[in-house]
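Section 3.1: Structural characterization of target chains.
Under the original work plan, the team committed to producing a structural model for every single-chain target entering the pipeline before any wet-lab resources were allocated. The record below documents one such target. The sequence was received from the expression subgroup and is listed exactly as submitted; it comprises 432 residues.
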Amino acid sequence: MPIRNKLKSEPCAIVRKLVESGYEAYIVGGAVRDLLLGREPKDYDIATSASPEEIRAVFGRRNSRIIGRRFRLTHVFFKKDIYEVSTFRRCPTEDERRGREDDRDGMIWRDNEFGTLEEDAARRDFTVNAMYYDVIGDRGVIDFSGGQKDLKRKVVWAIGDPVQRFTEDPVRMLRAVKLCGQFDFHLSREVSKALKAMREKITLASSSRLFEELLKILCSSKAELVLSRLQAYGLLEYIWPVMSQSWEESEGVLARQLLSIRDREVSAGNLGNSRGLALATPCLPFLMSALNPQDMTAFWKRDANTDATAEKAIRLIFDGYALPKFFANRIRNICYLVPRLLARPVSPRALSHIEYRHARALVAMLVEIFSWNDNILAVLPEINVAVPPLPAQSEDAIDDADAGVIPAIPHKRRRRRPRGTRKPSAASSQGA
């Protein structure tokens, strides 16, 4: 089946509107890669010759928003989804970079020099991510760097010098290894050599960007494989030190077993991509160890110190990151619920807990790993009827809060007075 027949209609409509407004526009990056691999893209990115301000003018202020400082792009709101629309970039000249105080050690902290389609392709990280698809015209897949060939060879090849590319943005090292874990690719010899020599430079990236990438990995259906590749290439010790140091210890081994089962269930469609569950899954073994160090397989009993110990353990697991409080709370609540679901009889409050389905998923994983009696799950319904159905636009209503998105509270509209009926002021009434 041709790629054109597999495309979602929404990104095509965005491209069409930009083209009809007089700009070049193409679907770009991971979506094209995934379609060529026969996979359904999770996200669609669009590249265009229009500047962020011009993009916003095309779609209007209500349907678009310019974001970012380091890399300015536009979010276009279409139906229930958000699409990233970026302007073609080019490599900054030495004169342009010389006056910047924020660029240092070869890193590019601001990447807002706009260019042509060809220049944009030359600025991308890897050949398999640098392909464009012409939705409106007849050019099909636009491939300047041999990305289709590298897809068939399953190789991650950098565009240009990998040392320079990793220097400009160290997060590219993480993304290179992520491609290997997700698609069973391998690094080219040049990329592998550069990564091994420069892996410590990953710490130059901001902790917020690294946490964002780690969260994406954990939410994927290949989390255990990607983490294993990161450990093999020596990057995990800089990105997630606690997991790297515990890799062969009981906590790390159990965390990887749990992640492997979760990945399988997500791939099979039995579990959604809840960020709460994605974070709680590898954290559970570390909490089990912290709250019951004598025997981590025997669950803890709540006491006066449990909350403080759990909070400290969660912070240590993500040491180096400013873990948002709502993430920490969700990890704790899901993990706390696991021993309550294993107790007999199970309390009605545990069965009606809003995190029930995520905690039950963890219980099911533990039953499989430790070969516990299947009767444990028999008294735990798969769907908690006490929790109201989730809205269609969100796989996990609580995950809206994860992203800092607070559902809008409807307000009564203030009725305006008809013209000519202005209420007289106190001063005017006294003078009357």
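Confidence is low (pLDDT under 50) at residues 391-398, 400-413, 426-432.
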